[in-house]
């Protein structure tokens, strides 16, 4: 029996079967199992590194800059949403990063994809030094200079030494790795004292996962090897000596809407997609407040 990477328990149960619905590479089926102790879910069989490579074609979404098309028109839905978020002081990430705006800090985007996260931050935080690393794609769309550096190999990250980074961002990363706990242990060493780690990952306890089941977009079989809940994510950080500061839940209904497409076997149309997402956003906002939307973001600190 496979041991849970988080709590070591060998007791788990079958939850659901799935195959690559999203990229459609093949129809090989995997079981999604759940640890009976800590409720972490994992793929069975766990695909190895070689097997996984074929499931990451160049057009896998994290490598392409999906957000570009969104910005073209004046979007009243978004303006209204941003107004509410601003009024209720709900933009936790912005508030957290804002505290570092004038400081000289080293920021690592681990799993940077095409580099859109660095791209969105570099103008606002001009004193920061940005580092990007991605195992599957080492092509940043942002130009490298003395403020932005792309690490080609994990060895380069190691060479920078311990206690180096003030902020490490892991957006849509830990669900893709075979041993997320070891990764967090490694990155904690790279983090300076008082430094922050920001993790964004799917929420297994989300309402849409319960409604859509195998059609839930965030299941992303077989690329998502583990899917966390807020509880076991906090536990993993805790096990590695990182202290939870804040936890919050997605307000954008992108995952919910893509799950709907998958459920009804509808193809995503870029033009109507943004409209539908905006239409569902008020509902997702409520799910977010109930901690049951599709994605969790946690901010934790190295004491
Ligand atoms: Zn467990």
Q: Can you give keywords for this protein?
A:
alpha/beta, binds zinc ion, Rossmann fold
Return the string of H and E elements: EEEHHHEHEEHEHEHEHEHHE
Mean pLDDT: 89
The CATH C-level name is Alpha Beta
CATH second-level architecture: 3-Layer(aba) Sandwich
User: Low-confidence stretches at least 5 residues in length (pLDDT < 50)?
Assistant: 65-71
- Cα(first) to Cα(last) distance is 36 Å
Helix content: 25-40%
Task: Give the CATH topology.
Answer: Rossmann fold
Bound molecules: zinc ion
Count of distinct structural domains: 1
Kindly report the spatial arrangement of strands forming the biggest sheet.
6-5-4-7-8-11-10
């Amino acid at each position: 029996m496979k041991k849970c990477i988080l709590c070591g328990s060998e007791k788990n149960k079958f939850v659901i079967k799935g195959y690559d619905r999203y990229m459609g590479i093949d129809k090989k089926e995997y079981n999604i199992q759940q640890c009976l102790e800590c409720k972490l879910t994992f793929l069975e069989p766990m695909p190895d590194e070689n097997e996984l490579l074929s499931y990451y074609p160049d057009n896998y979404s994290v490598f392409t800059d999906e957000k570009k098309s969104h910005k073209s028109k004046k979007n009243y839905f978004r303006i209204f949403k941003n107004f509410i978020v601003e009024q209720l002081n709900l933009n936790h990430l912005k508030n957290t990063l804002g505290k570092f705006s004038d400081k000289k800090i080293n920021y690592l985007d681990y799993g940077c994809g095409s580099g859109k996260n660095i791209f969105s931050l570099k103008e606002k935080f001009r004193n920061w030094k940005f580092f990007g690393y991605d195992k599957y794609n080492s092509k940043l769309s942002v130009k490298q200079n003395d403020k932005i550096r792309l690490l080609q190999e994990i060895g380069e990250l190691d060479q920078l030494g311990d206690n180096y980074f003030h902020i490490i961002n892991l957006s849509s990363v830990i669900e893709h790795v075979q041993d997320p706990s070891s990764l967090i242990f490694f990155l904690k060493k790279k983090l300076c004292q008082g430094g922050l780690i920001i993790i964004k990952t799917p929420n297994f306890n989300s309402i849409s996962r319960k409604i859509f089941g195998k059609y839930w977009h965030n299941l992303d079989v077989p690329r998502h090897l583990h899917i966390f809940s807020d509880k076991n994510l906090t536990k993993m950080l805790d096990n590695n000596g990182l202290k939870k500061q804040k936890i919050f839940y997605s307000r954008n209904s992108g995952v919910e809407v893509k799950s709907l497409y998958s459920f009804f076997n509808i193809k995503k149309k870029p033009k109507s997609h943004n409209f539908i997402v905006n239409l569902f956003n008020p509902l997702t906002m409520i799910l977010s407040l109930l901690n049951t939307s599709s994605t969790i973001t946690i901010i934790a600190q190295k004491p």
